[in-house]
Amino acid sequence: MIDPTLMDSITYSSLLAVMTFGLSFVRRTTGVWNIAHASFVTTGAYVVFTCISFWGGSPYVYLPLAFILSAIIAVVEYISIIEPLRKRKASTTMMLVSTLAFDLMMLSIINIYADYLQNTFNFPSKNFLLRKLDFEFLGEPGIFWVSVSLLIGFLMVLHVILNHTKIGVALRACVCNPMLASISGINIKYSNILSWLISGGLGGVAGGLLPLWVQGKPVLGDSLLAIMFCASIVGGVEEIYGTVLGGFLVGFAQILGTSALSLILGPAVIPYKTIVPMIILTLTLLFAPNGIAKVNWKKILTIAKFGGAPKRKA
Amino acid sequence: MFIIDLIALFATYLILNLSLNLQLGYAGIPNFGLVLAVTGGAFTVGWLPIRLCTWIFNIDSQLGGNIVKNNAIIVSQINLQIQSQPLIGLGVFILTLIVAMGIGGFLGFISSYPAIRLRGDYLAITLLALGEVLSIIGRNYEPLVGGVIGIAVPDVWSWLGRNRFTLFTVVLLAAAIGTLLLLEVLARSPLCRTFRAMRDNEVAASSMGKDVARIKLEVLVLGSMISGLAGALYAFYTCYVGPAVYGRLEWTFLPWLMVIFGGWGTTLALL
Description:
The structure holds two protein chains of two kinds. Chain A is mostly helical. Chain A has a domain at 4-222. Chain A is built from twelve helices and two strands; from the N terminus they run ααααββαααααααα. In chain A, strands 1-2 form a two-stranded antiparallel sheet. Chain B has one domain. In chain B, 75% of the residues lie in helices and 1% in strands. In chain B, helix 1 runs parallel beside helix 9, helix 1 runs antiparallel to helix 12 (212-238) and helix 5 runs antiparallel to helix 12 (212-238). Chain A binds chain B through residues 32-33, 91-93, 95-97, 100-101, 104, 107, 222, 225-227, 229-230, 233, 271-272, 274-275, 277-278, 281-282, 285-286, 289, and chain B through 30, 32, 114-115, 117-118, 120-122, 124-126, 128-133, 136-137, 139-140, 248-249, 253, 256-257, 260.
């Protein structure tokens, strides 16, 4: 039996890492901070909720559908908004604002859809929790096993794709240096579409899993947006796997850290756990502005051990 | 009444958009954390006037001991007192606005300090993330503004009787026009030329001896003071402050869309 707080931390961190990865990935490939990533997460949650409400069964069965639909929305966003703006050489801030507009549009659509489900079919679509439908394995809820397996499986698949396939190498090239990749004959547009597809799909899958752990609502993704950005910046956008590290650091600090603090300062600190990512973000920007993945730990350890950088012999 | 509400909302958003225009249009700082200073200004109105009036009017100490719990009774007693002593109401109003602007500026300083060396969208995202902090505190720390339920604010304009909303809307419009004129003067000053130089080319500006980080900090503090003013005026207008009212959507995203739609860097387009 795993400690419930530790289990919560691992589940939350895994889901956060999956969501954050998508966010950082498109930032690296297309230079866009996609605020609408929040709506991919919410879309995933509503795909699973709709399927469960109409056809029943296990929520996990509908995850591929959540992936597909969210991925399609992401690709639509890229093709209809980002690509034309990139062609017009819009600034990154302008593209950020355009993703904000898309997010607001999606938020409205999701709200209308939730109202429609509630008014027409009497489904509790404004507030739903699918925890009752979860399975148990070795005395622990299925969401714990699935979220961890999803993260590990995804990292393994990604590692294989990025290192051992042509398309993966092309993606990596686009991430590292889009201009050089373009000169080398790589089709940047298709690589970018692929990265948006992966990003949207991952957001959708994580969103589909979230109602098994927290309450689903039309602002589900938007309520996690600031935390996703924190995890992304803390991990370091420049490193592909750094965001996973950031997701875990932020997730663990938020749940396990707050729980530990409550033992010292009392339970009054627990409601403030959402502030923890912002504190970590502030500290990261002050002491490691490129994210923890870019920190030279060897140098820091040497300084800690010898009280200063080792001197070379004359 | 609908028209009056609409004008009041227009004036509030105009002040906020002017603040964003100063930061984005003139200085090129994409402040996606506008909501922080707005919330700061509004929370000042939720916290200060009720305590100030309770002390000035010597409201029953038993009631004053728990302002959040006895909020409705205290506010109604204060409103009755203000009806006969309008000067005190006006004094509390002006003092609160000054404090709200100070709090807004301070929050702008605190939130921008770690992020100030960042550029463009990176800075925007960091400010967006930090913009949430005060709302979370407000939701959970009840003595501040009554927690999730919120708190009623003394109506410092209650002495105007039935014309209260109409005349306060005029005050709001006057504040918006005042801010507009102030920023127009600023736009023609050498200081604003420095802002523009930084916006157009940070490297060139710093090579000319301008401390870019310091200028960014100054712009964000000034912009946050104006945002704090907008939040405070809106709270006084509605006579209510609750964390749920001051969300990212209404007080960051919508002003951004308005400024983008109107065209940043041009005051007339904002209108």
